[in-house]
Automatic annotation (TrEMBL):
Species annotation: Prosthecobacter debontii
Cofactors required: Zn(2+)
Subcellular location: Cytoplasm
Signal peptide: none
Subunit structure: Acetyl-CoA carboxylase is a heterohexamer composed of biotin carboxyl carrier protein (AccB), biotin carboxylase (AccC) and two subunits each of ACCase subunit alpha (AccA) and ACCase subunit beta (AccD).
GO biological process: fatty acid biosynthetic process; malonyl-CoA biosynthetic process
The UniProt record lists the keyword Transcription: no
Pfam families for the chain: Carboxyl_trans, Zn_ribbon_ACC
Manner of cofactor binding, per the entry note: Binds 1 zinc ion per subunit.
Protein name from the UniProt record: Acetyl-coenzyme A carboxylase carboxyl transferase subunit beta
Protein family membership: Belongs to the AccD/PCCB family.
Keyword annotations of the record: ATP-binding, Cytoplasm, Fatty acid biosynthesis, Fatty acid metabolism, Lipid biosynthesis, Lipid metabolism, Metal-binding, Nucleotide-binding, Transferase, Zinc, Zinc-finger
EC nos: 2.1.3.15
Taxonomic lineage: Bacteria, Pseudomonadati, Verrucomicrobiota, Verrucomicrobiia, Verrucomicrobiales
One of the record's GO cellular component terms: acetyl-CoA carboxylase complex
Length: 283
């Protein structure tokens, strides 16, 4: 005869509900489970290994510019289905409802430590921040406004590349944005390109790699085609760290790698330096 009576499962009361969703996030780099509030306070950078999660355009603006100085531009621009691509309009509307954005890039005027700039910030949540005609037009207008107003322009890239739903109209944005940057350079005004994870395809092949200073966040992926496509095309083993920011810096494509927590102060320091040297002489 046993000394202890065996208890049934029912005696323990109602089953405990599952953990609410959204409280914890698993780091894809080190596997650490991160408390969501802690991760948000740390600018969505893993507190264990330093992995930089993709962040929204709103989070980027908040972490970068002087409070209350951001003035959004061209909010009314909307994509049209010029090629009659099946389901494209519905897909765009679904992402608009999901993200609260009109398109995959947010542009506007702002100050960074008191220095006025024009900004274009791509948001990977919106169709992988693919570059369609509206994305290209908004970035071009931001560049042209910076040129007209004599200000630096900063573009934060994060994109899967050209938007296949718009075909050649998407590819034309590569030339349009590059042309605007050429005129900006002729005006002797600075352009900083900041590459975040991932920056690929037609974005990499155009405005993302045309910066006077090219900055990248740690370990972000930078390339044209993906590593699998490159390997299958070249039939060669790829070197360690291929297409990471660190690899690109070692091979001369990237000038600086800056952690997210230092991005605001480092960019402000660069802006103070270049605006002194590019500002027109006093009459």
């Amino acid at each position: 005869m046993g000394f202890f009576k065996k208890r049934s499962v029912n005696e323990f009361g109602e089953k405990k509900q599952d953990m609410p969703e959204g409280l914890w996030t698993k780091c894809p780099s080190c596997g650490e489970s991160l408390f969501e509030q802690t991760l948000a306070k740390n600018l969505r950078v893993c507190t264990n290994c330093g992995y930089h999660f993709t962040i929204s355009s709103g989070e980027r603006i908040t972490s970068l510019v002087d409070e209350g100085t951001f003035e959004e531009m061209d909010l009314q621009l909307d994509s049209v289905d010029a090629l009659g691509f099946k389901g494209y309009v519905d897909k765009v509307k679904a992402y608009q409802n999901k993200t609260g954005l009109k398109e995959a890039v947010v542009t506007g005027r702002a100050n960074i430590e008191g220095i006025p700039v024009l900004l274009a910030i791509m948001d990977f949540r919106f169709l992988g921040a693919s570059m369609g005609s509206v994305v290209g037009e908004k970035i071009t207008r931001a560049i042209e406004t910076a040129t007209a107003e004599g200000k630096p322009v900063l573009v934060f890239s994060a994109s899967g590349g050209a938007r296949m739903h718009e075909g050649i109209l998407s590819l034309m944005q590569m030339a349009k944005t590059s042309g605007a940057l050429a005129r900006h350079a002729e005006a002797r005004l600075p352009y900083f390109s900041i590459l975040t994870h991932p920056t690929t395809g037609g974005v990499t092949a155009s405005f993302a790699t045309l910066g006077d200073v090219i900055i990248a966040e740690p370990k972000c992926m930078i390339g044209f085609a993906g590593p699998r496509v490159v390997k299958e095309t070249t039939h060669a083993d790829l070197p360690p760290g291929f297409q990471t920011a660190e690899f690109m810096m070692q091979h001369g494509l990237v000038d600086m790698i800056i952690e997210r927590k230092d991005m605001r102060s480092k960019i402000a320091g660069l802006l103070r330096y270049v605006t002194k040297t590019t500002a027109p002489a006093a009459a």
